[in-house]
Model the fold of this input.
Amino acid sequence: MLKKLLSISVGVALSTSAIADDNSELIAELIERIDQLERELIDLQDSAGKDGDAVKFKKSAPTPKIYSRDGRSALEFKGRVEIDTVNVGDTTFNDGGQLEALDSYSATQINRLRVGLEGQFARDWEYEIQFDFADNINASDEKLDLKDANIVYEGFENTKLTFGYQKYAFGLENTQSSRHGYMMHRSFTDTFSPDRNFGVQHRYDSDNWAIRTSVAFDNGEDEDFGMFASRIVGTPYRGEGLLHLGASFLYQSMDDGDARWRARPSAKPMERVINTDKFDSDNQTAVGLEFAYQRNNFITQGEYVYATADNQDVGGDTDVSAAYISAIYTITGEMWEYRKKNGTFRQVSPANPISDGGWGAWEVAARIQTADFDDASTNIYGGSATDFAIGLNWYLEKHLKAQFNYIHGSTEYDPSLYEPGLEDDDYNILQARMQFSF
Done:
């Protein structure tokens, strides 16, 4: 086929030379035909493969993927840039038992700058390594942040084993990549999610449900650190809509360690508005419940997390909690993709991107959340907070989106512990983001 195309191209070229003086329109038509045949030849060469490895660009992807000739190995570059701007009004923040007044301010910074590689080798093995440079750029004294460094084995049916430094599944928002966030930042429930750490994670999935079980080890700072986490999710109903249900469990042990829960009001570099401060604790437990319902271009979801820790300072258990409920509506009609193996959603891909002359995809979202970090029985007074956020998302291209959030919230602190005027407060936040990811 390739030789035939070459012969046709040469023949056409000779014919063009012979009639050049007779018919200029025919010459132009033949030259256009030659160009078309050349493009077809290149496409055929790419699809037929060569003796060596191949580099391929997908139509929708901004970076190449490298494949080996035998199909057993592949390499792909990954990255994400998020540039945020935020405007915060006067408010109060909790610096671990000390309330402080915060004047209004505006800031622009890089929220994430991630670069990494992921790939496949020997057919059944995958690997991933990823770093985040954002903190290193925003503050020169910060170190480079390792996000992922792991190896994955997929040789068993419906099963995946991940070894190394990794993120662990707990809850819907936390398990779902922040790249696919319908709001710029996760809710208060993310406070209870486990940090990345060294360990092993097992994933099993079937047609309607999936379970992840994880064990993490010493994190290099605490000699006797250990963690066990599990998340089970399922889709009991798939008809005109999709119903997702899930539950998570987390247990962390740490001899002679500290416990602390604190949260920002869905904005960075905003300070934490609720904060239990550190207290001596040997173990912590968290239980989370989640749901989501999707029908066409509409999704509603919610989570509730209850956490407890043994408080060695007073000899009892400190209990805290957080919850949210949200709704997402894609105005232009595109649908979020449900990924049953992870029990998460992937953001929409615009049907009419800017590059094709369209206006991209448009979406509105709303979320109300609350958290209570007070436990009088163990003398913990971190405060409580409730806020309401509305967002507008604009997907210019598959890998490029802009987000706009407005947040109004309020905090409450025990008036007997803090100076007058700082016990209760409201906050208002405007923020925007441009995100490019691949």
User: Anything to note?
Assistant: Residues 1-21 have pLDDT under 50 and may be disordered. The chain has four helices and 24 strands. The chain has two domains: 1-48, 79-115+171-197+204-437. The longest strand covers residues 242-259.
